[in-house]
Design brief:
By secondary structure, the protein is mainly alpha-helical. It has eight helices and no strands. Helices cover 54% and strands 0% of the residues.
Length: 189
């Protein structure tokens, strides 16, 4: 039979770190630590070295709570995340999983930018050209006072209106409504 200097040396698998460890294994490790003659020194070593696993009868969450450290401060980010990718670049490391995730993120950003450009073109078409002497309709707001203001801002009102554009009529109706509201307010005052 082999003599070990410390009780934990006989069963090191109980003291290691890792998710999915059984409660029974943790309790067994804590029981061994409770009877250990070097428990205070071991606990201090675990705290000073920010060690993982059970040290001096203290689990990782207990030790980190005592030190005021969150797991995010200690554990490296999971590969495939933007944070992990940034960390790999800072350290000059290559990670296939992070590279693939970066490519997917970039593709998604490019698709989103293309979609925004497409929508912008769809909703705010370029004003009239030599081919089409009419100003282009602002599909989402045409026929409203806001549409009229947009045409005005884009200096399109000097062009012949697009056959489907009813912004000028909407502006006349809006201004008539404003005048009526102003008259009512003056009459009530």
């Amino acid at each position: 039979m082999t003599a070990y200097a410390f009780p934990c040396a006989a069963k090191p698998h109980l003291f290691g770190s890792g998710k999915g460890r059984s409660v029974k294994a943790v309790r067994e490790a804590l029981r061994i630590c409770a009877n250990c003659p070097v428990q205070p020194a071991c606990r201090r070593a675990g705290r000073e070295g920010h060690e993982f696993g059970i040290w001096g009868g203290e689990t990782e969450p207990e030790r980190f709570a005592y030190l005021g450290i969150t797991e995010e401060d200690i554990l490296p980010p999971e590969c495939g995340t933007e944070k992990a990718s940034r960390r790999h670049r800072e350290l000059g490391e290559e990670c296939e999983e992070c590279t693939l995730a970066d490519e997917k993120r970039q593709e998604a950003e490019d698709e989103a930018a293309a979609e925004r450009r497409r929508k912008r073109q769809e909703y705010e078409e370029i004003p009239g050209s030599r081919i089409n002497p009419h100003h282009a309709p602002l599909r989402t707001i045409c026929g409203t006072f806001r549409g009229y203001r947009a045409h005005e801002k884009r200096t399109e009102l000097r062009l012949d209106p697009h056959p489907d554009c009813t912004c000028r009529e909407a502006c006349r109706a809006y201004r008539a409504e404003q005048r009526a509201t102003d008259k009512e307010a003056k009459a009530g005052a």
